[in-house]
Every structure is written in structure tokens, then in C-alpha cells.
What does this fold into?
Amino acid sequence: MAVVHDDIGRRRFLSQAVMGFGMLFGIGTLSFRFLQFLLPTEARRESETVLIGAESRIPLGEAVPMDLGGRKILVLRTEEGVAAFSRRCTDLGCLVSWNKERSQFICPCHQGTFDRTGLNIAGPPPRPLDRLQIVKRGEQLYVNIQAT
Amino acid sequence: MASTVSENVKKEQDEKSWVDYIQKDLPQHLDWWPYTLGALPLTLFGLLVGTGLLLTFYYVPSPERAYESVDQITNEIYLGWFVRGLHKTSVDLMILFLFFHVIRVFITRAYRTPGELKWVSGSIVLFVTLAMGFTGYSLIFDNVSYWGMTVVTNMIGTLPVIGTPLLHLLRGGEEVSGVTLLRLYDLHTKLLPVLLGGLVLGHVVIVRLLGFAEVKGSRGFHSFYPEHTLKMGAIAAGLLLLIVNIVMIFPPLLGPAANVQEVASDVSPPWYFSAPFMWITLLPGPLALWSLLGFAGLFVVYPFLDRVLDERGWPMEIVNALVAAAVVSAMAGLMYLDTLM
It folds into this structure.
């Protein structure tokens, strides 16, 4: 009876398929775990407000670079007030510096240029500089570091 | 009597020398200089493995010690400057000769059917070699290294879907750190050299299996051993002489250590990345990156593009000559712009 032969063939196929998938699943899980081993766990960052000093200590027209726990920022004081920008260039992540004469932020890596409001005006950057919120309590300035 | 003859034949077969396994008559044109350009990077690869191994005995892949150890190799250790110089010069020449080899193959259209796989495998060798160049100069941990790492990993991070995981995998975190340096060190000294060795071997085997391209006017043949081997040996010896001279005249230099708080005024990469560096400086970010990726993709599949255009009656010899001239002058132009900045 042909049906019996078919049945044996099907059984063998099914058992091989189950074993095959089992093995693939095992290897896949293992590889995934190894990939997780290589990928770092991301440290959760809390939103916090950091004291950066008195407004009068920042000269007019100057931008003071600061490193707040690895977050590099520039605090700029102009006639319009004080503003804080992330120094990370929105092009490929180099650090921008303040050029007082041109009144612009310049990234030396690929000549990205931003104006005093952080707007990208020349070079490769696709968007303005990230801006951080400044809170004023009395004479003291605080900068609000967002959770990332 | 008859049995003795067959026994002798059998004996002779058993006593096959190792040369017989790689012995194969080569077409006459392989004797012409432009057709020996592929063997030069192979020789240099050997030199790079040797000098690279020596350098690992002193190099320390940590952000605090990396620059210091390169400084020590260059200025304190006996012949350290020479070993580092050999390594550095060999990379420059390997990439230069790879470019020349690519240009020769491109202009002569040596990738035509059945040689497509020769081109594809070779182009992967080129890309991995460039990756070796990048991971290599990152290890020095001067300004060019640090900001190069930042920029290149960021470029990889802009890829859709795989970009962010790949960025974290390469950096070992969100930011460029000591883990990043260690990972690039591992790539440069372990994963990529093994991969490159395998790819180079594969490329040579594929070229031998698929055969050399037919060249007009090349009729005769010569044997692989001793004629061709001797010629290659002479070229390798001449190359070594040239490299030693270059190292003596231009000993390896070391820029200032990486300053992670401020980008130095000039962070131009080595000459072989100069053209893409200017390209991403001149064009808006995403456009520059996508056009570079597109160019690389087009480069890999060019033999198939050639076949399609050839079938439509395009004069591909002329097209290729024009394309090669345009690409080489564009690269030279961009490199010149880089020297101006």
C-alpha cells in the first residue's frame, strides 16, 4: 500500500524538520545572547537641573564650554539673554566651538556653521544645534539636562 | 616489462613536487608591468602582517596608554620607528597599488564574463583593506584618530534600521570611549586580518579558477614556476628596497595626543580617505552619505552593469576610459581641496 510508504516518508520529513527547527532556534537564541553580550546595556539618564553659576560670570558675547557629566555644552550670553547649546554637531558628532568675531558656532571637522540661535546656516549639518533649557533662580543659572 | 613502465609512471605521479599543484602556464601578458599590480598588494599584505605582529608587542589599547605607547614605539624602543614606518608605508603603498590594480582591471574590462566574481571578490578585498586602514589609524589615538572614530561611527549610525545597533556594537556604548578603542583594536588585529587573509586567498583562487582575461596581442605562455615566480620575487625585492628607502627618508611622525574637549583645527584623514572626507564636507550630510554608499554599491556590481550596457551597443572601452578619467580627476581634485583647507 502506497499510503504506508508515504506515511513513513512524511514521518521522517516531519521529525527532521522538527529537529532542524529546534537546532536553528537553539543556535539563534545563543547568537542573540552573544550579540546582547556585545551590546552594552544603556544607562538610564534622569532629567536633572544643574547649577552652572552666576549670569554675570559669563562675559557678553562669549560662550563658555562646560562638561556636565559627559554632556558637553556651550553657554552663550548675548544681549537677548543666556542660551545653552549642546556642542555636538548635528552632522557627524564633532564638537562645535564659538567664534566670537563671526558670532557663529563652527564645527572644524566638516565646516558646519550655526548662527547665534543654533540654526544651521552653512555646511553639511541637517538641523540646528540641540538647545538646553536654562532656568534662572535669582542671580544663579541652572541648565536642564533632558533624559536621553 | 609493461608492468615496470606503469609502475614507473605511478611512482612519478607519487613523487609529484609541490610546485606541480600550483603549476599552470600563464598568458604572456602577465609579464607586462601593468599586469603585475595585483601581486604587489599581496606582498605588502605579508609585510603588514609581520610588522603588525611586532607592533602588538608594545601597543596598549587603552585611552590612557595608547598614544603614550605609540610615542614609545616611535621614539624610545630600538628600531621601533622603523617597524612602525614599515607598517605605515606598507599600508599607503598597498592601498595605492590596489587603486592602480583596480584602474588597470577597469580600463581593460578584465571582469567580463566569466570574470564577474573576480571583480566582486576583489572589491570586497578593497573595502576590507580600507576598513583596516581606518581601524589602524584610529589606534594611534591622536586628534585625527579620535575625531575620525567619532565621525565614522556616526556615519554608520545614520544607516536605516541596522545603523543604531551597529553604532552601539562598534562603540560599545553611546559615546566613543575606551571600549570603542578596544573594539577597533580587536577588529584591526584579529577579525579583519583573518577575514582579509581569507578574502585575498579566495580572490587569488577565484582568479586562477576562472582564468585570466584574454588580452589582445597576448599569444604565448610562460610557466608559473620558475619564470613568473622569479619575476614576482624580483618585484617584491624591489618593492622592499623602495619601502625601506621611503621609511628612512620619511620616518613616521606623531601628531599631538587626542583632545576630547576640543576639535583640532585640522583633522583631515590619511590621503586614501581624503576624497570622501572632502565630499562629506562639501555636500549636505545625508546626500553625501547616500551618494558615497551608492558609489560603493555601483562599484561592486559594475561588471553586470557593463554587460547590460554592452548588450545595448554602448562602446564600453571608451565609456570605461572616460569614467576612470572622471573618477580619478574628481578624487585628485577633492584631495587637492583638502590640502588647501
Notes: Residues 25-267 of chain B form a domain with the Cytochrome Bc1 Complex; Chain C fold (CATH 1.20.810.10). The radius of gyration of chain B is 23 Å. Chain B has two domains: 25-267, 268-341. The mean pLDDT of chain B is 90.
